[in-house]
Design brief:
The protein is an alpha+beta fold. It has 2 domains: 23-52 and 87-359, BirA Bifunctional Protein, domain 2, CATH 3.30.930.10; 370-478, Rossmann fold. Helix content is 38%, strand content 21%. One of its GO terms (molecular function) is histidine-tRNA ligase activity. It is found in: Cytoplasm.
Length: 479
């Protein structure tokens, strides 16, 4: 007898860093994005959608320097042998769009965008390769007033999303100030190697403190796992200057003697003055440890830091941290046109913010549907008419379609989080009635009922009404 060929079946698995998401999480995200989008629109920003793929050279930071570009982006080669990459953020596509449509756009050009972005990086706890951003940017908008406005809008957006004012702090700094500092200590800001190492060390100040940063500014540092990070090899005097700056020491005189540093300091002062006058000053503080990782920032940069405590994956109590950021990038569009276009924007980390709101029980409440039980197969049109009548009044409703008995249907409604169940069996139909169970009221009442007999007698949250009273009864309970 011939052997049967073995059927090869793929293993059901997903790639690392690409999460499956469903149900309440997606509904909460949609509601949150709608709230943030309304804030952006209230400031005069209009929506824009750009493709998921861009030509790789248009992304700027990730120009291919090998046969296949792989530094941080997912890429493929088109049939005309041009490299395309999934967008890393929503700002680089905006720069391409503005350059391509520059003559037709109003100035300033104010847009916001919602979309998925992809990063070809090592995934970890809370760190995904695919996630959603919602950005707002103003192009042809010089500092400092556009920067002050974008920060105000950023704060308003976080409040609309559900973040309590007392729980968020906007940390503000400037790349111009950093450039001035580098020049003062004798480094070339254009030297991405050594100067970049200094900036990356400064960015770790909150986590490592002055001693850890001093090691990274000097010869290098070995962490707890034994991994060694090469340092910037600064002289002791240079290290002291950087640490004095990070610790809030008086560097104003030194910066005032440096053109770019003085310019950055003055811009920050004007931004703080405007925010203070408009009632936002208490939520913003100057913080030189805010560096921002992307190379295209050229002026003020900021991060939104949530200040409440949470428990991390190791069981340690830590502050939640950043849920969004932004800054000025006057040179990004110049890659296409050869001329600077003053631009500033902000970006909310949607997944991070959802996690934060969940930890504070502040997520927008999703609306679960009323479930109409299907107890008689020949009465399905009747059940669908009930659900249709509820939907016509703006109430989410569905008919059970699984083919199970009443107990299983009730379990289904419970899993769906249904607030109300509609029952119309043979007895109800004969009397032109429906039985309605308010599952929320029943759950609340069950906490005070001590016996099955008491439960059966009282039937909390349950009522039988005339069929034509179904919609008014449900509306009264839900709306």
């Amino acid at each position: 007898m011939a052997k049967k060929n073995k059927v090869l079946r793929p293993k059901a698995r997903k790639p690392r860093g690409f999460p499956d998401r469903s149900g309440a999480e997606l509904i909460a995200e949609r509601l949150m994005l709608e709230r943030i989008g309304k804030v952006y629109e209230s400031y005069g920003f209009a929506p824009l959608s750009t493709p998921a793929f861009e030509y790789t050279d248009a992304l700027g930071k990730f120009l291919p320097d090998v046969d296949r570009p792989n530094a941080g982006v997912f890429s493929l080669q088109d049939d005309d042998e041009q490299w395309m990459s999934l967008r890393y953020d929503l700002t680089a596509p905006l720069a391409r769009y503005v350059a391509e449509n520059m003559d037709a756009l109003p100035r300033p050009y104010r847009r916001y965008a919602v979309g998925t972005v992809w990063r070809n990086e090592k995934p970890g706890p809370g760190r995904f390769r695919e996630f959603t951003q919602i950005d707002a940017d103003a192009c042809f908008a010089p500092p400092p007033h556009a920067d002050a406005e974008i920060i105000m809008m950023f704060i308003d957006a976080l409040s609309a999303a559900g973040v309590d004012d007392k729980d968020v702090e906007i940390r503000l700094s400037s790349r111009k100030v950093m450039t001035g500092l580098l020049e003062i200590i004798g480094l070339d800001p254009e030297d991405k190697g050594r100067s970049g190492t200094v900036l990356r060390a400064m960015d770790k100040y909150d986590r490592l403190g002055p001693d850890g940063v001093a090691l990274l500014l000097g010869e290098g540092r070995k962490d707890e796992s034994g991994d060694y990070t090469e340092g910037a090899k600064l002289e002791p005097g240079q290290i002291d200057s950087v640490l004095r700056f990070m610790e809030g020491g008086d560097m104003a005189e030194a910066l005032s003697a440096n053109r770019i540093g003085a310019e950055g300091t003055e811009e920050l002062a004007q931004i703080i003055s405007t925010l203070t006058e408009l009632g936002y000053g208490e939520r913003v503080k100057l913080d030189p440890s805010v560096i921002r990782g992307l190379d295209y920032y050229t002026g003020p940069v900021f991060e939104a830091e949530l200040t409440f405590d949470v428990e991390n994956e190791k069981g340690q109590t830590v502050q939640f941290g950043s849920v969004g950021s932004g800054g000025r990038y006057d040179g990004l569009i110049a890659r296409f046109k050869g001329q600077d276009v003053p631009s500033v924007g902000c970006s909310v980390g949607v997944s991070r913010l959802l996690t934060a709101l969940k930890s504070k029980s502040a997520l927008p409440e999703p609306v679960s549907p009323v479930v109409v039980l299907a107890l008689e197969s020949d009465q399905m049109p009747r059940y669908h008419r009930m659900a249709k009548a509820l939907r016509a009044e703006g109430i989410a409703a569905e008919v059970y379609l699984g083919g199970a008995g009443m107990k299983a249907q009730m379990r289904y409604a419970d899993k769906r989080g249904a607030p109300i169940v509609v029952i119309c069996g043979e007895d109800e139909r004969a009397n032109d009635q429906v039985t309605i169970k308010d599952l929320r009221a029943g759950k609340a009442a069950s906490e005070n009922i001590e016996s099955r007999e008491e439960w059966t007698e009282e039937r909390p949250g349950q009522e039988t009404v005339a069929a034509d009273q179904l919609v008014p009864w449900v509306k009264d309970r839900l709306m």
